[in-house]
Design a protein that fits this description.
The structure holds two protein chains of two kinds.
Chain A lengths: L8 E4 L5 E6 L9 E5 L6 E4 L13 E6 L2 E6 L8 E9 L6 E4 L3 E5 L1
Parallel strand pairs in A: 1-9
Antiparallel strand pairs in A: 2-6, 3-4, 3-7, 5-6, 7-8, 7-9
Chain B lengths: L2 E5 L2 E3 L5 E8 L7 E7 L5 E7 L5 E3 L7 E6 L4 E6 L8 E8 L6 E4 L3 E5 L2
Parallel strand pairs in B: 2-11
Antiparallel strand pairs in B: 1-3, 3-8, 4-5, 4-9, 5-6, 7-8, 9-10, 9-11
The chains are: A mainly beta, B mainly beta.
Chain lengths: 110, 118
């Protein structure tokens, strides 16, 4: 089955740029989606199809995907961005397709 | 407005059964792909199951043969029948709508907690 690898934690000072990576074999050939989850809340989609933003998501959230790494970039980080972030793809390569999530990255705003 | 509301969670003994429900509003369940995603305490997200609009169903290996996803079109509700429950099934279970173009989970419910313990 397909495996997505994320760093357990990323720390950044307010106003700086946070970059959260998601590694997978030839992930650049897949569509990658990113979710933000705050404590006690359901996940929220913040980027889909590598770099598109759902309505209501600030432009500070952006994404890229190439080769074996996808990246979620959060510009001008705010205290309210502190959360867990998960990448996700849909694995349709086998006869039993399904969702695949990365292990998650805890973003700490210093 | 799209809304998903799960119910049916609770405490169950190992080997027991439970049925989760997810009532949808603002869209038609049968016309969309719908999934269940779970999160064990302090852990990450784990995809569990999907039902396509055409009715095909798929499961994670960890639940295959024990869990069944279904829907009731008249009630616009998604279900997850969970049998032969194990301690490792303890988690918050979320229902989510799957965008059929991107295969992202664009709307989520608030989750319902399932605890498997004696």
């Amino acid at each position: 089955s397909y495996v997505l690898t994320q760093p357990p934690s990323v720390s950044v000072a307010p106003g700086q740029t946070a970059r959260i990576t998601c590694g997978g074999n030839n992930i650049g050939s897949k569509s990658v989606h990113w979710y933000q989850q705050k404590p006690g809340q359901a996940p929220v989609l913040v980027v889909y199809d590598d770099s598109d933003r759902p309505s209501g998501i600030p432009e500070r959230f952006s994404g890229s995907n190439s080769g074996n790494t996808a990246t979620l970039t959060i510009s001008r980080v705010e205290a309210g961005d502190e959360a867990d972030y998960y990448c996700q793809v849909w694995d349709s390569s086998s006869d039993h397709p399904g969702g695949v999530f990365g292990g998650g990255t805890k973003l700490t705003v210093l | 407005e799209v809304q998903l509301v799960e119910s049916g969670g609770g405490l169950v003994q190992p080997g027991g059964s439970l049925r989760l429900s997810c009532a949808a509003s603002g869209f038609t369940v049968s016309s969309n792909y719908m999934s269940w995603v779970r999160q064990a305490p302090g852990k990450g997200l784990e995809w569990v199951s999907v039902i396509y609009s055409g009715g095909s169903t798929y499961y994670a290996d960890s639940v295959k043969g024990r869990f069944t996803i279904s829907r009731d079109n008249s009630k616009n509700t998604l279900y997850l029948q969970m049998n032969s429950l194990r301690a490792e099934d303890t988690a918050v279970y979320y229902c989510a709508r799957v965008d059929s173009g991107s295969y992202s989970f664009d709307y989520w419910g608030q989750g319902t907690l399932v605890t498997v313990s004696s």
